[in-house]
Amino acid sequence: MRRVISVIVLNEHGVLSRISGLFAGRGYNIDTLTVAPIPGTELSRISIVTSGDERVLEQIVKQLHKLIPTYKVIESGEFVEKEMALVKIPLSENFGGLDAILKAYNGIVANTNENYIVVMVSDDASRIENFLKAIKKFNPTDVVRGGSVLMDL
């Protein structure tokens, strides 16, 4: 079962280590993890995507609530969730249809040089997965996928 958790914490050293330790200590994998400061505050938002047994996830969430630097844990409700991917494609490829794929997945050309073009897309996690399948026909040489970024509604 896929689970999305947003944790608001005090922006201080060691917090990320303690949070990831909660998952590791229970043998749980974090699928994606992103951290960013919240502008105008001394807080940061940690966005976690994980999956697994409901009972163990409930224990992890309870432990997150008990951590001293934790201000708020949001584990249910509606989120706006977006991911980003960068894909490097050799300029020797035929780019027929690339514009249509980029438009369909909120993509742009992020950079180019004499050998490669780098495209960037930002969309829902499942749509990023579909984009990466569609872009394979252009024989990418490198793919970097960012973690989910969350905002509760």
From TrEMBL:
<dbReference type="GO" id="GO:0009097">
    <property type="term" value="P:isoleucine biosynthetic process"/>
</dbReference>
<dbReference type="GO" id="GO:1990610">
    <property type="term" value="F:acetolactate synthase regulator activity"/>
</dbReference>
<dbReference type="Pfam" id="PF22629">
    <property type="entry name" value="ACT_AHAS_ss"/>
</dbReference>
<comment type="pathway">
    <text>Amino-acid biosynthesis; L-isoleucine biosynthesis; L-isoleucine from 2-oxobutanoate: step 1/4.</text>
</comment>
<dbReference type="InterPro" id="IPR027271">
    <property type="entry name" value="Acetolactate_synth/TF_NikR_C"/>
</dbReference>
<dbReference type="GO" id="GO:0009099">
    <property type="term" value="P:L-valine biosynthetic process"/>
</dbReference>
<feature type="domain" description="ACT">
    <location>
        <begin position="4"/>
        <end position="78"/>
    </location>
</feature>
<dbReference type="GO" id="GO:0003984">
    <property type="term" value="F:acetolactate synthase activity"/>
</dbReference>
<dbReference type="GO" id="GO:0005829">
    <property type="term" value="C:cytosol"/>
</dbReference>
<keyword id="KW-0028">Amino-acid biosynthesis</keyword>
<dbReference type="InterPro" id="IPR039557">
    <property type="entry name" value="AHAS_ACT"/>
</dbReference>
<dbReference type="InterPro" id="IPR002912">
    <property type="entry name" value="ACT_dom"/>
</dbReference>
<dbReference type="InterPro" id="IPR045865">
    <property type="entry name" value="ACT-like_dom_sf"/>
</dbReference>
<comment type="subunit">
    <text>Dimer of large and small chains.</text>
</comment>
<protein>
    <recommendedName>
        <fullName>Acetolactate synthase small subunit</fullName>
        <ecNumber>2.2.1.6</ecNumber>
    </recommendedName>
</protein>
<dbReference type="InterPro" id="IPR019455">
    <property type="entry name" value="Acetolactate_synth_ssu_C"/>
</dbReference>
<dbReference type="InterPro" id="IPR004789">
    <property type="entry name" value="Acetalactate_synth_ssu"/>
</dbReference>
<comment type="pathway">
    <text>Amino-acid biosynthesis; L-valine biosynthesis; L-valine from pyruvate: step 1/4.</text>
</comment>
<comment type="function">
    <text>Catalyzes the conversion of 2 pyruvate molecules into acetolactate in the first common step of the biosynthetic pathway of the branched-amino acids such as leucine, isoleucine, and valine.</text>
</comment>
<dbReference type="InterPro" id="IPR054480">
    <property type="entry name" value="AHAS_small-like_ACT"/>
</dbReference>
<dbReference type="Pfam" id="PF10369">
    <property type="entry name" value="ALS_ss_C"/>
</dbReference>
<comment type="similarity">
    <text>Belongs to the acetolactate synthase small subunit family.</text>
</comment>
<keyword id="KW-0808">Transferase</keyword>
<keyword id="KW-0100">Branched-chain amino acid biosynthesis</keyword>
